[in-house]
Amino acid sequence: MSVRKHISVIQLFFALCLLLIQGCDDMQDRNQPVGGGGSGESGTEEIYILCEGLFNLNNSTLACHSFLSGTTTTDYFRQINRRGLGDTANDMAIYGDRLYIVVNVSSQIEVIDLLTGVSVGQVPLLTDNGSSRQPRNIAFEGRKAYVCSYDGTVARIDTASLAVEAYLSVGRNPDGICVQNEKLYVSNSGALDASATGVDRTVSVIDIPTFTETRRIEVGPNPGPIRADEYGYVYVAIRGEHIEKGEYQLVQIDAQTDVVTQVYEEKVLNFAINDELAYLSYTLSGTQESGIKVMNVHTGQIVRESFITDGTQIHTPFSIQVNPFNGNIYLTDAYDYQVTGDVLCFNPQGELQFRIDNVGLNPNCVVFSDRGSQPAGGDGSETDTHPAYAQKVWEYVPAPGQFINTTTSAYREGYTYEEVLEYATERLQSHSLLSLGGFGGYIVVGFDHTVPNVPGEYDLKIYGNAYYNMYGSVTGALAGSSEPGIVFVSKDTNGNGLPDDEWYELAGSEYQSPEVIREYEITYYRPDPANADVYWTDNQGGEGYIYRSSTHLQDTYYPSWIEEDEITFRGDRLPDNGVNEGTNGKENWVSYCFPWGYADNHPNSTELCQFKIDWAVDNQGNPVQLDGIDFVRIYTAVNQHLGWTGEVSTEVQTVEDLHY
User: Fold this and answer.
1) Which residues on neighbouring strands pair with residue 253, listed in sequence order?
2) What distance in Å separates the CA atoms of residue 226 and residue 238, rounded to the nearest whole number?
């Protein structure tokens, strides 16, 4: 079986993540021992680790590590709340007895009770017409939460009622926020629309008592992370007009006078401050260069060119935090942004104390608690291999796509098809995403029992990663990230335990639509060179490409474990559901949900991702009465390219028997 080497261009992906989301699958590549258990961490009982996942895949996770028990729960929020966090969680903070999580693409603040881990509410941050504000970072003062959003606003939220009290306009695409001297300081990056108008160069100063902007301070091009120290100063990382060129600075602002007092010519993309020391982290785009320096912000002198003194290697520093209870430094490693990352704890002398590996995809924030939790329902110990869920992947043949040849397609370098199936089964059992790629890509999963057909009731639930943005303009249509897949079911009639009996479609809302193209056929061709766009033709006289994305840079989008140079898929093609609702030349792709009956079409939290076996029809469209089913087949049923967001590709987490 032919295999192509998987190479990810780390720095280019990192640069785009910084511009868009700062920057998402439970791959166990680095089987290092999990540290921290039993040894404790002075003054700290637990840490929470936020993993943003991958943009537009709706797979952010929250991990919790207990120093008392020495255990790590890698998908803590889902285990307790039985749903995901949403798409691209960017920031997190503890305030009072609650944990607040900022979820950028889903445009909401998730609020969690620290003691139980249970969600106590979600705060949507939407415009008057329902558009996403894209919240980015959060700060607190006087029982209020303040959230800066990429739409150019800061929201004030009452932490008691969780109501948004007011919005204040600031600069373009605010990227960071902090509190100092009864004022908010907001870094205005201007990074999202920089190609049209250039980056922003300012920090907004907001008087907290009146919630008004009092000044904009010129600090330099593309300001990002912003932090306050204990001495009345604010520091902001400057990333330059072109982030890939490494034109970095650290700027100091006096919070008494609101003027820039120092500009330090140091490489910095992220940083943390503890007393007079700043820990400056950087990864240079387009190179393998990264590192962490230590600087005395009072003297402006570099104390250590390399913070790490014991030879420990950090591949891609992604976030850096200081434990406020003891001064230890926590670094997260994102590797190539496609595999699960690690958390490493160092003492102030730069010596590794312990590490916690495989915490989640792209860990971007760590917060510290001096209180132990008592998770609702115990520790969320109901296993993902509970027999209510599908247990095995029998077939997995994804079409080419931007997530193929990554963990999201159950692939590791050199894998054969048999190994892909084994890994896909592991991911199915852990409820991790599996991408089906472009039109026709499919998966077949099976249960260890027959799922009964209970007439009139929903029998199956298919978990995907769809979500609502609620900013579509089509009247009466829900909008978000719908990537619909058509669902088939089969019963093991011959009793051999294999998915080789007749398949029946679960007819969804569009089954009778004249816009559906029946017996659609598409052929994808292996690209040459491997990293070129993937060309396709269809039986309707059409042709096109699965285009490469600037954020997914693996060697090829054509499944590496497939020997053939052509792959052909057949099936009914649903109408295109993506609409570009951008204005003034900007792309704003919205995917409208079909009413019902398709995988990855509505969020997992809604009834609309559930299915009835009663919907089954044969290949002539005649209703079929099945008393139960054993296997489920799902394929991507839309063939559409959505601009910079890429191709429509159905994603599947698992399938549940609702009667078990």
Assistant:
1) 234, 260
2) 10
Helix (H, G, I), strand (E, B), or coil: what is residue 71?
strand
Q: Which helix (H) or strand (E) holds 331?
A: strand 329-333
Task: Give the distance between the most distant pair of CA atoms in the chain.
Answer: 81
- Tell me, what's the pLDDT at 17? 40
The answer for residues whose C-beta is within 8 angstroms of residue 614's C-beta and 6 or more apart is 453, 455, 456
Alpha carbons 535 and 527: distance in angstroms, whole number: 7
Q: Characterize the bridge pairing of strands 460-463 and 654-657.
A: antiparallel
In this prediction, residue 25 has a pLDDT band, given cuts at 50, 70 and 90, of: very low
Q: What is the DSSP string of 84-109?
A: ---S-EEEEEEETTEEEEEETTTTEE
Report pLDDT for 18: 38
For residue 490, the model assigns a pLDDT of 98
CA neighbor of 341 nearest in space, from 353, 355, 324, 352: 355
CB 534, CB 552: distance < 8 Å: no
Q: In whole angstroms, what is the distance from residue 645 CA to residue 474 CA? A: 20
Distance CA 660, CA 657 (A): 6
Strands lying side by side in the sheet with 479-480: 479-480, 589-592, 578-580
- Token look-up 């001064």 returns 327
The pair of structure tokens assigned to 386 is 């509970």
pLDDT at 15: 39
DSSP 623: B
Of 238, 240, 208, nearest in space to 226 by CA: 238
The pTM score is: 0.67
Q: Are 430 and 384 in contact (CB under 8 A)?
A: yes
Q: 568-605, pLDDT tens digit by residue?
A: 999 999 999 998 877 777 777 888 999 999 999 988 87
Please give the Cα distance from 630 to 647 (Å, whole number).
31
The DSSP element (H or E) to which 16 belongs, if any, is: helix 10-20
> What is the rounded distance in angstroms from the CA atom of residue 653 to the CA atom of residue 639?
21
DSSP state of 255: T
The two structure tokens encoding residue 535: 């060309």
**Average pLDDT of the segment spanning 194-212:** 90
Q: Dihedral through CA 14, CA 19, CA 20, CA 25, nearest 10? A: 10
Do 488 and 573 touch, CB atoms closer than 8 A? Answer: no
Tell how strand 212-218 and strand 202-207 pair up. Answer: antiparallel
Q: Which amino acid is at 98?
A: R
User: Which of 299, 309, 255 lies closest to 278 in space, CA to CA?
Assistant: 299
Report the C-alpha gap between 375 and 428 in whole angstroms. 25
Contacts of residue 576, defined as CB under 8 A and 6 or more positions apart, other chains included, come to: 638, 639, 640
Task: Spell out the residues 6+ positions from residue 69 whose beta carbon is closer than 8 angstroms to its own.
Answer: 37
Angle at 527 between CA 523 and CA 530, to 5 degrees: 145
307 C-beta neighbours (distance < 10 Å), count: 23
Question: Which of 34-48 are b and which e, b meaning 16 or more Cβ less than 10 Å from the residue's Cβ?
Answer: bbbbeeebeebbbbb
Coil, strand or helix at 481: strand
* Strand, coil or helix: 434: strand
Mapped onto helix, strand or coil, the DSSP state of residue 477 is coil
Report residue 18 as tokens.
Answer: 């910084």
Query: How many angstroms separate the CA atoms of 621 and 619, rounded?
Result: 6
CA distance 364 to 149: 18
Give me the residues paired with residue 543 across strands. Answer: 537
Alpha-carbon gap, residue 483 to 279, rounded angstroms: 42
Separation of alpha carbons 110 and 86, rounded Å: 9
